[in-house]
């Protein structure tokens, strides 16, 4: 039997019904079922996630006061449950995970593609981390310029144990030296790192502390990215 986990930080508002709802949604991913169970979604998934985001606001400020945790149900940190199926082969209408992004305050409106932190909750696939995902071409160029100009700082990130992930080009992009000591990372199109959680960890009393620790671990990468984009961190 696992030892009980205690927490000195904010209370975790997520309960066992959170994952039960997501498992049921995955098994019945259609509009009729969702409409019948919309009250469950709001009570068991949406509202607890919004309370978690609110509880995370203070701890997140201890990582960076320039990153926002916004608990508004619309236009805040939490992503919509509805999938955009217009160009997708998978036409199931609902996401089977609950997620939130915590963007830099200067990029709040379009922050999903700016530097910040992210939380993804899914049965058997939860994680938190930070970085830069699918940046616009100008931001991507600035990050590559920063890596090329500050190879020692970038290598220090790598040596710290951070596993930096992202889609990558086959070749070093035009305008950068293929023989550069960080050539492999100059191919990256995204720059992010993450920490995984078990279902039990997500439901533990100290989960807000765990998310804070994951974001703090990712913060050197986010700080590097913010500096590359002339943003405070």
UniProtKB/TrEMBL annotation:
It comes from the Bacteria. Pfam families: DUF2461. InterPro entries: CHP02453, UCP028451. This is TIGR02453 family protein. It comes from Geothrix edaphica.
């Amino acid at each position: 039997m696992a030892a009980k986990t205690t927490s000195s930080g904010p209370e975790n508002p997520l309960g066992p019904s959170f994952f039960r709802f997501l498992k049921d949604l995955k098994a019945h991913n259609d509009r009729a079922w969702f409409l019948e169970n919309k009250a469950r979604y709001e009570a068991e998934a949406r509202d607890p996630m919004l309370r978690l985001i609110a509880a995370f606001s203070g701890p997140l400020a201890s990582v960076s006061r320039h990153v926002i945790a916004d608990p508004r149900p619309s236009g805040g940190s939490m992503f919509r449950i509805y999938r955009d199926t217009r160009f997708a082969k998978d036409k199931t209408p609902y996401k089977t995970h609950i997620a939130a992004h915590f963007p830099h305050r200067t990029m709040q409106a379009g922050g999903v593609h700016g530097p910040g932190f992210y939380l993804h909750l899914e049965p058997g696939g939860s994680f938190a981390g930070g970085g830069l995902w699918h940046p616009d071409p100008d931001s991507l160029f600035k990050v590559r310029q920063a890596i090329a100009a500050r190879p020692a700082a970038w290598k220090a990130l790598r040596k710290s144990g951070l596993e930096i992930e992202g889609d990558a080009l086959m070749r070093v992009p035009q305008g950068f030296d293929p023989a550069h000591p960080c050539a492999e990372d100059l191919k990256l199109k995204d720059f992010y790192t993450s920490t995984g959680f078990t279902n039990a960890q997500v439901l533990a009393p100290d989960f807000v502390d765990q998310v804070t620790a994951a974001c703090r671990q990712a913060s050197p990468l986010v700080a590097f990215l913010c500096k590359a984009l002339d943003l405070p961190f």
